[in-house]
């Protein structure tokens, strides 16, 4: 790390300049909005870096774990819906337990029964599925019938939203454990396809199971860990503070709220960096890198490669889930319809590769830099396009088309950045060593 | 019990759509499997390659329509196919030269190619959205149906109708022709044989004087043709939307892996397995069972095993089952 420190400082300084520039030339509100999402992106990149950089696991199901974290946040922090819970909550709970029991029974039958195992498994799954649906479906109907226009879901636990963050991470970790148990034995390409599929399934479930978090009807108005702008604007102490700085209380309140979020997120990020750096420098970190660089040799040294892979897969997914819960909190809503793999999976991968896989600081750098670019490419592209089309006749077809297409510049730019870094600096901006 | 009606209902809602969809998936999976067999990586940009080829076809179709050229009862897009294939071929050959060739000469590990293909995916996706926009495009013209449900009812006197869309029939016919040409090419021509040799054993192929760059070039040309045809057929049958094509990646990969990556026969089988599973499991079978079973056993519910939004889950579950129990796929593919 020591020989790289000047480089790291220079690059982080550059990113800081980008954000400061945004503040001075656009507005501090915009700069802080980008910065907050940059903090979350950095945490997601850290999670992916744990899987890819430490252990070489090619997980392209990031989107699924982000969404699971968001789901966790909703289920923990939303106020309880007693009516719905009494209408069908018990049935749903029993149904889910039965479903899980079916799968466990099938796995046990497959591993324990010596003959006709396949048929027994098939029979168990078939009967289990029918029983599962017949118990679950009436419960789901009952829950969804309760005030469908504004609720129609089982509600949450009503706990503080900060508690929801680690629980979102736990939820993602739990699913990652199941995924890892089945898919981690596969070689890298297959693992990639498997995780890609899991992410799509998670999103499909969240879109369709309205009883859980209202599906595509979206959950809005999540409780916030920071005060509301409206309350701040009428609080005497805040108005006084704002006038002291010579700012308009309305603008000041929005900036104050964003700063509060930034503070919370920064605490989480710093904690995670500290933990991951310590882990990477520990014997455990050395073992992980040894496994990544040469699985066979590590196995010969008595390391349980599969178990370590499962461990890091679960840990990395938990970090991504935590970031997902934080993002849902920041947005104040859960909108399963907006989760797209290009934005929530592949963009995070660009951050990790560009930042430098295997290097935690690199991932953080990549998170901030790429997120800033992702947001700013659009206004920059608009400027560029205005320049290009300035000489064209007004109302011409090409001019209109070019100006309309600016919105799609960001995908193109991200692809080109990824390809350029991969070609000319394959170890990223901040290489591992 | 009315077995004939049950059969017709099944054909109308499951057999015909699934066959067309299966043919489209099979063509897509053939492209993926060719790249995997010869270039030895999973190409994440394949969905977007299909989108690009289809986009070129759509724009040519518009041009033809503006000029008043049509293909009679068949969609004009079929006439535009060659143009689309050429455009797509130029794109993939260009990508190969700019991106993949560097890693090939360096003998980079497969996962580097996969990550590079992620970058290519972004660029192609952006390019397509940039040129044609992210919205739905309908470009099918000509006759819509070979036989409509009502005509079938009057003809046969049954209660159930059977509709066959022109695009469904075209899909199957074109797919058969393309697959026949592909297998003839791979098995009978010198270039095809050298491609198979290269796929089987790279070193031995190089030793016997096969020019690797030539093999790679032919592979990309075939991939471009397959991707454009698959994309156009899918677009004619349903509609063209860049994001949908990106999402097709999952069933296409599932088809290629289920069949055995690197095995062309497997890709075709896999395509149909995935398509039939998706359509059967997400279609409400009430109507079919209502006709097929005696009245006392008629189901009350819809007998829809899973809602249509879970179709990804179906391809995925099949994929996992095959990977766990037969890691090389139904037809022995590669397992590097």
TrEMBL record, chain A:
GO cellular component: plasma membrane
Membrane spanning stretches: 7-25, 31-50, 57-78, 90-109, 116-136, 156-178, 190-206, 259-282, 310-330, 342-362, 369-393, 405-424
Compartments, as annotated in UniProt: Cell membrane
InterPro entries: ABC_transp_permease, LivM-like
Secreted in keyword set: no
Top-level division of the source organism's lineage: Bacteria
Protein name stated in the entry: Leucine/isoleucine/valine transporter permease subunit
Organism of origin: Jannaschia donghaensis
Source lineage: Bacteria, Pseudomonadati, Pseudomonadota, Alphaproteobacteria, Rhodobacterales
TrEMBL record, chain B:
Origin: domain of life: Bacteria
GO biological process, one term: L-alanine transport
Segments traversing the membrane: 20-39, 51-71, 77-96, 108-132, 168-186, 215-236, 305-325
Subcellular location: Cell membrane
Keyword Cell membrane: yes
Pfam families assigned: BPD_transp_2 (PF02653)
Entry's Gene Ontology cellular component terms: plasma membrane
Topology term for the membrane: Multi-pass membrane protein
Cytoplasm found in the keyword field: no
Keyword set, alphabetical order: Amino-acid transport, Cell inner membrane, Cell membrane, Membrane, Transmembrane, Transmembrane helix, Transport
UniProt GO MF annotations: L-isoleucine transmembrane transporter activity; L-leucine transmembrane transporter activity; L-phenylalanine transmembrane transporter activity; L-valine transmembrane transporter activity
Family: Belongs to the binding-protein-dependent transport system permease family. LivHM subfamily.
Protein name: LIV-I protein H
Organism (species): Jannaschia donghaensis
The gene coding this protein: livH_4
């Amino acid at each position: 790390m020591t020989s790289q420190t000047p480089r790291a400082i220079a690059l982080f300084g550059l990113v800081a300049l980008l954000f400061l520039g945004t503040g001075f030339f656009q507005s501090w509100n915009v700069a802080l909005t980008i910065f907050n999402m940059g903090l979350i992106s950095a945490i997601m990149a850290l999670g992916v870096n744990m899987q890819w950089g430490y252990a070489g696991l090619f997980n392209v199901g990031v989107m699924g774990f982000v969404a699971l974290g968001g789901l966790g946040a909703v289920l923990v922090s939303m106020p309880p819906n007693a009516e719905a819970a009494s209408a069908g909550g018990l049935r749903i709970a029993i149904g889910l337990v039965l479903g899980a029991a079916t799968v466990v029974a099938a796995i046990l039958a497959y591993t324990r029964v010596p003959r006709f195992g396949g048929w027994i498994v098939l029979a168990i799954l078939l009967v289990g599925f029918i029983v599962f649906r017949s118990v679950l479906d009436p419960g789901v109907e009952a829950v969804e019938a309760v005030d469908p226009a504004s609720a129609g879901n089982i509600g949450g636990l009503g706990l503080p939203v900060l508690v929801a963050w680690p629980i979102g991470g736990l939820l993602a970790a739990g699913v990652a454990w199941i995924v890892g148990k089945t898919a981690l034995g596969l070689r890298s390409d297959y693992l990639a396809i498997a995780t890609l599929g899991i992410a799509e399934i998670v999103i499909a479930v969240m879109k369709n199971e309205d009883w859980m978090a209202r599906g595509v009807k979206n959950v809005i108005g999540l409780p916030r860990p920071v005060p509301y702008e409206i309350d701040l604007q009428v609080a005497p102490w805040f108005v006084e503070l704002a006038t002291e700085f010579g700012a308009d209380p309305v603008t000041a309140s929005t900036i104050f709220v964003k700063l509060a979020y930034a503070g919370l997120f920064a605490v989480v990020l710093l904690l995670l960096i500290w933990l991951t750096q310590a882990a990477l420098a520990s014997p455990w970190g050395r073992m992980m890198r040894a496994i990544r660089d040469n699985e066979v040799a590590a196995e010969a040294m008595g390391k349980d490669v599969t178990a370590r892979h499962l461990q890091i897969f679960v840990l990395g997914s938990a970090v991504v889930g935590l970031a997902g819960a934080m993002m849902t909190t920041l947005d104040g809503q859960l909108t399963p319809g907006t989760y797209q793999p290009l934005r929530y999976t592949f963009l995070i991968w660009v951050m990790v590769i560009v930042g430098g896989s295997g290097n935690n600081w690199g991932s953080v750098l990549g998170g901030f830099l790429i997120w800033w670019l992702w947001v700013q490419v659009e206004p920059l592209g608009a400027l560029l396009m205005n320049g290009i089309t300035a000489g064209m006749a007004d109302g011409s077809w090409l001019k209109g088309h070019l100006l309309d297409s600016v919105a799609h510049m960001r995908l193109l730019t991200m692809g080109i950045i990824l390809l350029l870094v991969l070609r000319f600096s394959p170890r990223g901006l901040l290489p591992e060593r | 019990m009315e077995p004939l009606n049950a059969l017709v209902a099944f054909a109308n809602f499951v057999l015909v759509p699934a066959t067309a969809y299966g043919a489209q998936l099979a063509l897509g999976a053939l492209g993926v499997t060719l790249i995997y067999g010869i270039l030895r990586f999973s190409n994440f940009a394949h969905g977007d390659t299909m989108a690009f080829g289809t986009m070129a076809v759509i724009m040519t179709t518009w041009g033809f329509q503006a000029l008043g050229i049509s293909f009679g009862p068949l969609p004009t897009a079929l006439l535009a196919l060659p143009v689309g294939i050429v455009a797509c071929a130029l794109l993939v050959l260009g990508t190969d030269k700019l991106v993949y060739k560097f890693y090939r000469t360096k003998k980079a590990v497969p996962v580097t190619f996969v990550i590079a293909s992620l970058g290519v995916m972004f660029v192609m996706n952006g390019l397509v959205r940039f040129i044609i926009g992210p919205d739905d495009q309908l470009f099918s013209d000509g006759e819509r149906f070979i036989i409509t449900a009502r005509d079938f009812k009057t003809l046969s006197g049954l209660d159930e109708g059977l509709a066959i869309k022109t695009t469904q029939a075209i899909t199957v016919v074109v797919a058969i022709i393309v697959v026949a040409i592909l297998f003839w090419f791979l098995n009978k021509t010198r270039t095809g044989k050298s491609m198979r040799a290269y796929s089987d054993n790279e070193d031995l192929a190089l030793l016997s004087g096969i020019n690797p760059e030539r093999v790679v070039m032919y592979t990309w040309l075939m991939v471009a043709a397959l991707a454009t045809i698959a994309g156009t057929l899918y677009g004619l049958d349903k509609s063209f939307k860049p994001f949908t094509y990106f999402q097709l990646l999952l069933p296409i990969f599932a088809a290629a892996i289920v069949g055995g990556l690197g095995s062309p026969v497997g890709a075709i089988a896999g395509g149909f397995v995935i398509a039939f599973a998706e359509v059967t499991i997400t279609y409400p079978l009430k109507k079919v069972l209502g006709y097929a079973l005696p009245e006392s056993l008629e189901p009350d519910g819809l007998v829809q095993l899973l809602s249509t939004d879970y179709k990804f889950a179906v391809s995925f579950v099949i994929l996992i089952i095959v990977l766990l129990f037969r890691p090389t796929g139904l037809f022995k593919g590669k397992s590097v």
